[in-house]
Amino acid sequence: FPQNPHFSPQNPLSPEQRMVLLACGPFTPSDGVAFEPLSDLLEVVARDRPDVCVLFGPFLDAKHEQVESCQLLGSFSDVFQLCLLTIIEGTRSSGCQLVLVPSLRDVSHDFVYPQPPFPLDVPKEDRARVLLVPEPCTLDID
């Protein structure tokens, strides 16, 4: 077989490696909406300090038992916004680029396909590192 001149393990495409962390929701256990799995994920981000962290919804799952039975302590929108702001603040110290991708099962987001990005007012200090994208989308990292 002829060798591909555009790819060779000895000639990487980038002189610097990138760590990309991907995680998919829901970020709550099935018996509550305390977001323990999300807290665990944020600890991993703080410890491993990835360059890019891509999180796919659902962030507050429409199929969750407490959501379906309306047993949340706040409105869907309030709990959802709190979840996203917790993620943004929880990844701030790592300095990673954060990409948030919606899901059709996100309880307080548009149930259409393709989905628009989340309508979130990102805190000013995080706007350069937080990217709210539509679903589907194409990401080009470096």
UniProtKB/TrEMBL annotation:
InterPro entries referenced in this protein's UniProt entry, alphabetically: DNA_pol_a/d/e_bsu, DNA_pol_alpha_bsu
GO biological process: DNA replication initiation
Gene from which this protein is expressed: Pola2_1
Protein name per its UniProtKB record: DNA polymerase alpha subunit B
Keyword Transferase appears in the UniProt entry: no
Compartments, as annotated in UniProt: Nucleus
UniProt domain DNA polymerase alpha/delta/epsilon subunit B: residue ranges: 20-142
Gene Ontology molecular function, alphabetical: DNA binding
Family membership noted in the UniProt record: Belongs to the DNA polymerase alpha subunit B family.
Organism expressing this protein natively: Thryothorus ludovicianus
Entry keyword set: DNA replication, Nucleus
Cellular component GO terms, alphabetical: alpha DNA polymerase:primase complex
Location (main, coarse): nucleus
Coiled coil regions in record: none
Domain of life: Eukaryota
Cross-referenced Gene3D superfamilies: 3.60.21.60
